[in-house]
Amino acid sequence: MHACDLSVTFGIGCQVLVGFGQLRKSTGTPLAENFDFIDITRGEVYSNNKEIPNLRLPTCLSGDEIELHIDMSSGNVQYLIYKSGKSSPISSSLSLSDNISHEIEPMVGVLCTKQEGVTIRIIGKAISKPVEQVRFEESTKYGPVVISANGRTVSRGNVASNCCVLVNQVATTGRHKWKFKVKSDVGSSTCLGLAKCPLKISQEYSNSQKHLYQHEGLMLWRSYRGTLYKHGQQLRRTLEPIGWVENQTIVVEFVLDMTKGTLEVFRNERPLGIAFEDIKGPVQAAIVFYAGYEKAIEILDYRVEGTLQEEIPPVVKSLPHSIAAKTFFDPSSIHGSISVSNDGLTVFRTAEESGNAYCLLNQVCTKGIYRWSFKIEIDKGASTCVGITSEPVVVPDSANIYTSKSMFLCRSFRGALYANGREMSKRFKEFWMAGTIVELVLDLENKVLQFSISGVDQGIAFLNVKGPYRPVVAFYSRMEKRITLQTFEQLESFSSQVNLSRDVNNLGENDTGEKKVNTQLDKFENISEQTDCCIVCSTRNNNVAILPCKHVIYCPVHAEEASECLACGTAITGVWNIF
Questions:
Q1: Three-state SS string across 409-475, please?
Q2: With helix as H, strand as E and coil as C, how does 177-215 read?
Q3: For the chain, which terminus, N or C, has the lower number of CB atoms within 10 Å?
Q4: Whose CA is closest to 480, among 569, 360, 377, 349?
Q5: Which of 256, 255, 262, 259 has its CA nearest to residue 307?
């Protein structure tokens, strides 16, 4: 088990990643490889450096405390968030890659242009990892015992004598786990336990008259009757005996907690109880043989967990120049039911929230050429708008946000365009589908705003835009939404394949392209959408028309559930099937 417990403080414009990976330190800057991590500011999950699609975890706020635990054998991860003032954590579980290397280390990464404003306080970095070099230590042998070539097995023949050998790892702090396999214990005269470090054995134990479990430097559990000896004195309590039988596998596990000062014993994964208390280090695991008969003990595994005091320095990596940490959704420039993620790169609303809402980017476009793009993560109900706005922002009292007289917007539903609150005759490709990338280019030298949808140039949407403007994302109507800023940059020049004269002619009669049109269409053919999917679920066909507006946007299930048309807001009085 690996674990990482930490508290993170960060500012707007930062992404914070926590996880595990292999750190290659051979030359130059350490390089993280095979990185499994969670973007705690955005809830995204990555395995082997690739995002796991359609998986989102709860996000963290600055100052939250986080626990991350990973099971090395199964790849299962437990992710806990402790909110400020809350005693119970928000818990999430997921499964990452199998056969995770034991060489991985806890890692914390910060994506930003600079490290200022980001602090990572390690509450306790608990690291549990096997120690491959664990072995019985040749220099600690006492009596006629034999250590195998790989150092993992100690044995003794049919000789009546005291024997002792120690495991080479010394425990002073943290938690230590040993696993031993009892391969042979004829005569039930084996002891397992701990030895004070260093252990000195006098000549009085060289014969078998005084057994080693009476040594004052040992704490031992005897296989015979499960009796316990601490510093040479037999304790009143006992544990279940080892009970070795030929051809039967017996695995004994010791769990030493130096913080609590306890040694707990397990037999074939079943807990037998606390053998010893008030343990003070340094100590080593010990194997003792006495009396006669053949004995053999193999060490299977050793793991150490320790709370380390050193901090994990954050891995600071620059975001692409197009985003930079200086560009983000401004939490001070919002209105209505809309939220900003901790990294400042995403705006969202829940399924229960509704009404007009907007959030502005913190950039003010005054002169030159600007290009930015958004990714549509979720837009249920197709009620998102993107564009620009002048300030002060005008919010309609009762109408939808796209009728704002300060905004130039493109609606995700049907790609409708609105200039200063009036709908234009021209439309672009709709973009409410998850994964759609919407790119905007604001050219204040030529006073135009241009759109591209999923790499397809849509042309010029608005003319005579003089600035200053701020980029805006706006929501209206109910249902879940999530929009992420992908890029933002100021360009020296912009080359477009759009025919400017063609687009000007298509805009309408005046230089802003403003032309009010009737959205209450009469024929099904005129309201057929650019997709055959339901606007709500995106999975079933939109094969019903709602009355009286006759819009074809819903599947039968969501048409029955809806009370009003998402396209025009008309109350629904009936549904017609279309074949």
A1: EEECCCCEEEECCEEEEEECCCCCCCCCEEEEEEECCCCEEEEEECCEEEEEEEECCCCCEEEEEEE
A2: EEEEEEEEECCCCEEEEEEECCCCCCHHHCCCCCCHHHC
A3: C
A4: 349
A5: 259
